[in-house]
Design goal:
Length: 253
């Protein structure tokens, strides 16, 4: 008598193949045994070799990505960075900014002509007095963050997170802030001296925190602004940053 059907294991249905792909795509850090176990909990008994054959191979590394790390710790991380500003007399001033990621808030800034590890460490102390420091401080590997800086940071309870060499994209939050400072303010003025620069930055950060909307904050400002209904009155314009920008409010006539 001829044997009906084909010998060997039964074929895997299209439904099960699709489910294996779905599970593996949605959970790229799951191995084949984990998927086998999950399928068994769903009443589907398949071999590990079957899962190996049909699973989606992730192109991403098994460990969490840098973007995921920043996202997971956004409420408990600050980043710092320097940028330079030339003056009308060709002096070079260094600006340190300390940015809290959660609401894109500039916690602290200062200006100096001669940045050192001691000076930079003191700025972190001034930015976070009375045990207010979050868990993580993100920075690059610049030599200005020397041993004196590291001791001050450690005493505040920070865990330092260092970006890879020549990888400014890993400190994207503060890099974007610096770009905004230049485009919104410094590209349009001639800086006279250190005092003038501090005054300009104070004015800009007041506008930045209270009025400038951010796409990443759902078109809100770092200091959240309430929506003003039309019934409140007409729209009135107010100058900001020496007239470079304006904010708008509804006021009763």
């Amino acid at each position: 008598m001829s044997q009906e059907g084909r010998p060997g294991r039964p074929t895997v249905s299209k439904e099960i193949r699709a489910l294996i792909r779905k599970l593996s795509a949605a959970n790229p850090r799951w191995g084949s045994p984990r998927i086998v176990g999950e399928l068994r909990k769903l009443g589907i008994d398949v071999a590990k070799s079957t899962v190996d054959k049909y699973r989606v191979r992730s192109k991403q590394p098994p460990s969490p990505t840098w973007k995921t790390f920043l996202k997971n710790h956004v409420t408990d991380m600050v980043s710092i960075d320097f940028f330079v500003v030339p003056t009308v007399r060709f002096r070079v001033l260094f600006v340190l900014v300390v940015l809290a990621h959660h609401r894109r808030t500039v916690v602290h800034f200062n200006v100096t002509e001669h940045p050192t590890a001691r000076w930079t460490g003191q700025q972190i102390v001034e930015a976070f007095p009375w045990d207010t420091a979050p868990n993580y401080l993100l920075r690059d590997r610049d030599g200005v963050y020397g041993s004196q800086f590291q001791r001050r940071v450690k005493s505040l309870g920070f865990h330092e997170v260092l970006t890879a060499p020549r990888s400014p994209w890993q400190n994207a939050f503060v890099e974007r802030l610096i770009g905004s400072i230049r485009r919104d303010c410094l590209d349009h003025v001639v800086v006279l001296n250190e005092r003038h620069l501090k005054r300009m930055l104070n004015s800009y950060f007041n506008y930045y925190h209270r009025w400038r909307t951010h796409l990443s904050l759902g078109m809100d400002s770092p200091e959240s602004r309430a929506v003003q209904p039309r019934a409140l009155g007409k729209v009135v314009q107010f100058p900001e940053v020496g007239g470079l920008h304006h904010h708008y409010e509804r006021l009763a006539a």
